[in-house]
Description:
Mean pLDDT: 74
Strand content: 15-25%
Number of strands: 15
Low-confidence stretches: 12-24, 369-374, 419-423, 425-432, 457-463
Number of helices: 11
Largest sheet: 6 strands, mixed
Radius of gyration: 37 Å
Amino acid sequence: MSETFRNIVQDRKTSYKTPPASVRDSSTSQEARRKKALEEQKRRRAERFDSSRQLDFFADLNLGPSDEEDEDANEPIREGVAQFASLLPSQSAAAPEPSSSKAGPTVGALPIDQVDPMQDYLPTSFAGNNKKKGKSKRRGKGKGKAAHVAQSVQSSKPNSKWADKCMYAELLEMTEDNAMSDFPGVALDGIPADLETAWVAVTPVPVGKRCLAITHAPSGIAGIVPNTTLRSRVLGKSLMKPFPSSLPPHTVLDCILDDNWRSNGVLHILDVIKWKGQDIADCETPFRFWWRDTRMSELPTFPPPNATLPTSSHCYQFQYPTTLLCVPYHLGLTIPKLLNTLIPLSRSVRQIPIDIPVQARPESDAMDVEQSSSTAQVELVRENAVIQSDGMLLCVAQAAYEPGTSPLSLWVPVKAYAEEQAGRTLVDTSVAISAEQTPLNMFERLIRQRLAPAGIAGSEMIS
Length: 463
C-alpha cells in the first residue's frame, strides 16, 4: 500500500514538471496560434482592399484592337436585325379576335344561353375568415403569454451587439523548466523571439473593470447632455446611466473603469475602435495608440458636477467618470529598456492630479450658514489620485483590433493567477504562492537570461 502511494506521489511530481500539451505540441503552442491569427488578419485585410477597389468590374474590359496588329485580321461582321423579321409571327395570328360588342350576359365564363338551368352555380366557399371567435380569443391569450415569456427570456440574454467585443489578451505561457529543451520547435521560455522588434508594451495597466465606452449624438450642449454609455466586456450590459463627456459622437473606445472611480472619477482609455464613425480597428497597433493620444489631447475638459457638494474633498463621490486618462504605451522593447524601465514601471503606483469640487467656506461669520446649494460658492481642490498597477500588456505591432480572446495580445499580471481571479487560476489556491512565482517576476528572470548569450551581466545593465 505504501509502495502504491509512493508511485502516485512520484507521478504527480513528474506531471508538475511536464509542460502542458498546448506547449509541448508546436502546432498548438501560443506562438503557432499567434502566427496563424496574424496571417488570417492579413488575408482578411487583403480581401477587403480588393473588394473596395472593385477589381471584378474591370476584369472583362478590353482596350480594343492594337495598332500593331495586322490590318488583314478578321473583323467581326456587323449586321442588322432585318434578317430575323421573317421569324416573327404574323399580325393576324398574334392578335386575338375582338369580342363582339353585342355579346349577351354571362354566368361565370359561359354565355347565358349555354347555362344548364338544373345546375347550381352558387359559390361553395367564401373568401372570409372561417375561424371561430372563441378559438381565436383563446389563441390570442396563448400568444400573449408566449410573447411575454419570450420577452422575459430575451431581456435576460446579453446584448449581442456589444457582448464580447473587447480584444481580450491571453496569459503569456512562460516556463523555467529545462524539460522544454526536449521538444523541438518550441521556445524554451515561452517569450516571443521577436519581442524587441515586433511588439508594443502597454504599462502600467490599471486595476479596474474592462468595458466599452460608446457615444451617440447628443441633442443639447456637449458636456451637459448625457452622450456616453459604458458597456460590460462579457455581457454588453450597461454599467451605469448615460453621462456627459467630451468624447465626439459615434465613438467606441476600449476602456478600463478604475477600481476607485467613485473617489477619483477616472476612466482609463486602453484602445480606440471607432472615432466619429470612422473604423480604426483595422489599423495597426502603433497607429491606433498614436491616434488615441492625439485625439484625446484635443478634447476639452469639463468640471465634475456640483450635486451634493461636501465641505471636504475626501467625502466627495463622483456620479460618473469625468477624467479620461490614456494608458501609456512604449515602442522599441529592447532588453535594457524592459529591465530598467518597463518592468519597474509595471510595479509602480501612478499619481494623477484630479479636481474635486467642494463647498467653499464663508469668508466672514456674517454670511448666512444655511444658504442653499444653488447659491453656495464652489471651489475646485487639486489632489493626487493613486492608480494601482495590474500588470503589463504586450501587443503585436502589425495586428489589428479584433473582438474576443486573441493570442495577438499577451497579458503579464503583477499578481499570481490564483490571487487575481478564479477565471484565470493556473495554480492551486490551497498552495501558498511566493513572490518569486508571480508572472511578472518570472518574466523579469527570463528577460535577464537573454542577456547571458550576449555576454552582458544583468548587474551592469541595472543601475
